[in-house]
Amino acid sequence: MVLELDAAKFESEVLQSKTPVIVDFWAEWCGPCKMMAPVFEELSKEYTGKLKFAKISVEDYPDIGGQNQITGIPCLIVFHKGEEVDRIVGFLQKAELKRQIDGILKQI
């Protein structure tokens, strides 16, 4: 399950989370973001209890995009204990995204 974030939920669900969180920064007009959405949704089911999946629109919440230095989308940022651990920019196929996520989770 992918959580839909707003500014308040970003604080509580991401920055205060005890579980690592991967956040998809996206926009409605972004083609690669639309391609990433089903891959992200599918992977969210495989990491239950290990990694929370969330998404936030940089159109609706530009301040949060700016605070996280989002310069290209889709941009996936992994947060752990409120801090950025790693980021993945651009569309990836499911197998490649899973490989990168597994590598990031091994580091934390």
Can you walk me through this structure?
This protein is globular. Strands 1-3-2-4-5 form a five-stranded mixed beta sheet, with helices on both faces. It has helices at 7-15, 31-44, 62-67, 94-107; strands spanning 2-4, 21-26, 52-57, 75-80, 83-89. It is of the alpha/beta class and 108 residues long. The protein has one domain (2-107): 3-Layer(aba) Sandwich (Glutaredoxin), CATH 3.40.30.10. It has four helices and five strands, in the order βαβαβαββα.
CATH topology, what is it called?
Glutaredoxin
What do we call the CATH homologous superfamily? Glutaredoxin
Poorly predicted spans: none
Number of strands: 5
Alpha carbon gap, first and last residue: 22 Å
> What is the C-alpha radius of gyration, as a whole number of Å?
12 Å
Instruction: Report the total helices.
Output: 4
Taking the sheet with the most strands, its summary is: 5 strands, mixed
Enumerate the strands of the largest sheet in spatial order, edge to edge or round the barrel: 1-3-2-4-5
Overall average pLDDT: 97
Strand content: 25-35%
Helix content: 25-40%
Overall shape: it is globular
Please state the second-level CATH architecture: 3-Layer(aba) Sandwich
**Whole-number count of domains:** 1
The arrangement of helices and strands along the chain is EHEHEHEEH
CATH domain class: Alpha Beta
Overall structural class, as computed from helix and strand content, comes to alpha/beta
